[in-house]
Specification:
Elements (H helix, E strand, L loop, with lengths): L2 E2 L2 E2 L3 E9 L3 E3 L9 H11 L3 E5 H11 L7 E5 L10 E4 L2 H16 L3 E4 L3 H7 L5 E7 L7 E2 L8 E9 L2 E8 L5
Parallel strand pairs: 3-8, 3-9, 5-6, 5-8, 6-7
Antiparallel strand pairs: 1-2, 4-10, 9-12, 11-12
The chain binds NADP nicotinamide-adenine-dinucleotide phosphate.
The site of NADP nicotinamide-adenine-dinucleotide phosphate (NAP) has 29 residues, from strand 3, strand 4, strand 5, helix 2 and helix 4.
Enzyme class: oxidoreductase
Pfam families: DHFR_1
GO molecular function: dihydrofolate reductase activity; NADP binding
Amino acid sequence: MSDEHELETDCELVGIVAVADNDVIGKDGDMPWHIPADLTHFKETTMDHPVIMGRVTYEGILEALGEPLPGRTTIVLTSRPLETPENAVVANDLEGALEAAERAARKRHNTDRVFVAGGATVYEQLLPALDRLIVTEVHDDPDGDTRFPTWDRESFREVSRAEHDGFAFVEYARRERTD
Ligand SMILES: NC(=O)c1ccc[n+]([C@@H]2O[C@H](COP(=O)([O-])OP(=O)(O)OC[C@H]3O[C@@H](n4cnc5c(N)ncnc54)[C@H](OP(=O)(O)O)[C@@H]3O)[C@@H](O)[C@H]2O)c1
């Protein structure tokens, strides 16, 4: 449950990302790899929850799927006017995104968990507020134009790790805050 400065939410805020050994997470608006098991992992983990993402990531998903993530409520961060279908909501700032996500969590999904699904600009802003981080470590050094920001690993402890061929599913939980 985040209590990081003004970014308050009663929900558990969980980051989810696939990141390569060289910190690359994106290329040309898409992921630089195709790992079907990771897509399944993302779908199963986030299903029936609100998912906060930046406008660029949202547009990439629209291009790939033709619609926002099915079965979830997408909260799109953007400064632009944007028409969205019923299962997507526009937020113009972080506070608005957290409020919209919390509303969707309680009213639509009956959960207290909210996911933060990138891209880099959104991870960067919300990392300090995350309670948990679910990482697919991709054991590769691909070319890319978007990198996961440096994060305060000392504030998290690894709680699970499942190694697979070429990647690992790893979960981190924030250590007790001392501030
Ligand atoms: N590997 C992974 O797990 C993963 C996950 C997600 C994304 N990605 C990749 O990352 C890349 C996209 O990341 P990105 O960093 O370029 O873009 P992004 O974070 O998806 O979107 C950036 C946009 O979000 C909006 N935004 C961000 N913070 C905001 C705020 N506080 N208030 C209002 N609007 C805000 C702005 O939209 P406006 O310009 O409309 O104002 C900004 O231009 C893609 O290649 C994607 O495939 C990878």
